[in-house]
Amino acid sequence: MLNIPGDVRWTQKGITVVGGHRYGSLHFQLYYPLGLCVDDDQTVALVDQLHHRIVQWKKGDNYGHVIAGGKGSGNELNQLKYPTDILSDQETDRLIVCDRGNRRILQWSLRRGTEQGELLIDNIAYYELVMNNQRYRYVSDIEKHAVRRYQLGTHNGTVVAGGNGEGVYLNQLNIPELSFCRSTTECLCIRQLQSSCNAVE
């Protein structure tokens, strides 16, 4: 996970580091890019959703390298179907992929020669995932309107927010999205895709 100091100052002018060449299927093109992660060495990996693949760019690369999927839409362990999010686990040198179209989360080794992913969690409608310093994985379940937490190596998650059906009460969520912030204390932020102005306590 990228470690950004709290007093960092950002430049006011951005540069394109990935894509920017119209949509297409070549290794320097993207088609509906979504989730991305940046490692400490500035390697960028991102979801190229409509190509059903995860593409990686190392600093200075002109072309991306497919590191997961890229074999058409499908449900085999070497395929993805409309992936939505990824996270990089630098401690284990693995990539965690939210494979939404197949209702599963896969883990891919980043070692050269890896041909397929390993199933971590299946049969659930995930959209996003984040991981904290204690290596807990948090995933948004957009079907059950809940956020679940998974310990490393476990397949059964614990509901930490929502899970009481779709609604406007404080114990309910409506298609949750996740983000993660780091400061002196960690926090998990949950945003609802369909928010209501009439929330009820």
Key words describing this protein structure:
201 residues; Neuraminidase; 4-stranded antiparallel β-sheet; 14 strands; disordered C terminus
Walk me through what this model shows.
- The chain is mostly beta strands and 201 residues long.
- It contains no helices and 14 strands.
- A hairpin with a 4-residue loop joins strand 6 (94-99) and strand 7.
- 28% of the residues are buried.
Short description:
The chain has strands at residues 33-38, 44-48, 53-57, 65-69, 85-89, 94-99, 104-109, 118-122, 126-131, 137-141, 146-150, 158-162, 176-181, 187-192. The chain is mostly beta strands.
How would you summarize the topology of this molecule?
Blueprint (H helix, E strand, L loop, with lengths): L32 E6 L5 E5 L4 E5 L7 E5 L15 E5 L4 E6 L4 E6 L8 E5 L3 E6 L5 E5 L4 E5 L7 E5 L13 E6 L5 E6 L9
Antiparallel strand pairs: 1-2, 2-3, 3-4, 5-6, 6-7, 7-8, 9-10, 10-11, 11-12, 13-14
Structural class: mainly beta
Query: What do we call the CATH topology?
Result: Neuraminidase
Helix/strand order: EEEEEEEEEEEEEE
CATH class designation = Mainly Beta
Strand order of the largest sheet: 1-2-3-4
Question: Rg from C-alpha positions?
Answer: 17 Å
Tally of separate domains: 1
Percent helix range: under 10%
The protein's oligomeric status is single chain
The largest sheet, given as strand count, sense and whether it forms a barrel, is: 4 strands, antiparallel
InterPro entries: 6-blade_b-propeller_TolB-like (IPR011042)
